[in-house]
Amino acid sequence: MVIPSTPGSAARRRCVAVAAVLGWTGLTIQLYLILYLRWTVAASLLGGLVSFFSFFTVLTNTLVAVVLTCELTSRESAARRWFLQPWVSSGIAVSIAVVGVAYSLLLRHLWHPEGWQWLADELMHDVMPLLFLAYWWCCVPKGTLRLRHIALWVIYPLGYFGYALWRGHLLAVYPYPFIDVDKLGYPQVFINAGGLLVGFVVIALLVIGLDRWKGRLGTGLDR
């Protein structure tokens, strides 16, 4: 059975399409800048690709772009069904919110990018968090989240933290200054990571609270 598109659903689809394009654009610009810099100094491009995917910001923005693309794709697949599950999309919403908040509080003052780097930074740290949270609010069905989902959501940042420490130990390169073990030492790094984890859980609780509130209002959207 084909359900006819309404003006409202068509408008939402256009907005999601714009958000998806912006998400992939930010990632593409950032990848180009990293690979171009590596090429100019005759460094390994494969190493540049590994470095690109070693940032929590990049990984999370990739997940955001994938969810938005799945929303636009009509062809059914296991991947599409998985990413569009409310608890999965909501967990990604929590992560991208953390990206935006952490960048504004901890990193924005440390440098002042210009040109294409400024554009990539704005898209990944400011624009996409806001757009994806708007998508989550308007398009993801509400009323299904439970506190137990937080235990699943934190696997992602904890796994990333473990990977970042392992990679940093091997290469002496850390993606973010607040987890730089060589400069701060393990005790301070774990304190910093613990503070970020607390922030992650607080945002997760807020997301669950909003989900339950909107679910009770009966305004959740059916796919």
Features:
disordered N terminus, mainly alpha, 223 residues, membrane
Q: What secondary-structure arrangement, pairings included, does this model have?
A:
Layout: H1 7-40, H2 45-52, H3 56-72, H4 78-83, H5 86-107, H6 115-139, H7 148-153, H8 155-171, H9 181-184, H10 186-217
Helix pairs in contact: 1-2, 1-3, 1-6, 3-5, 3-6, 5-6, 5-10
Description:
InterPro entries: Pr6Pr-like (IPR049713). The structure is a single chain. The protein is an all-alpha fold and 223 residues long. The protein has one domain. It has 10 helices and no strands. Helix 5 packs antiparallel against helix 6 and helix 5 crosses helix 10.
Q: Give the CA-CA distance, first to last residue.
A: 14 Å
* Total separate domains: 1
Query: What portion of residues is helical?
Result: over 70%
Major pleated sheet: none
Q: Round the mean pLDDT to the nearest integer and report it.
A: 93
Oligomer: single chain
Number of strands: 0
Please work out how many helical segments DSSP would assign.
10
Report Rg: 19 Å
Overall form: globular
Structural class: mainly alpha
| Beta strand % | under 5%
- Low-confidence runs of at least 5 consecutive residues: 1-5
Keywords: Membrane, Transmembrane, Transmembrane helix
Protein name: Pr6Pr family membrane protein
Organism: Pseudomonas lini
InterPro entries: Pr6Pr-like
Brief write-up:
The protein is mainly alpha-helical and 223 residues long.
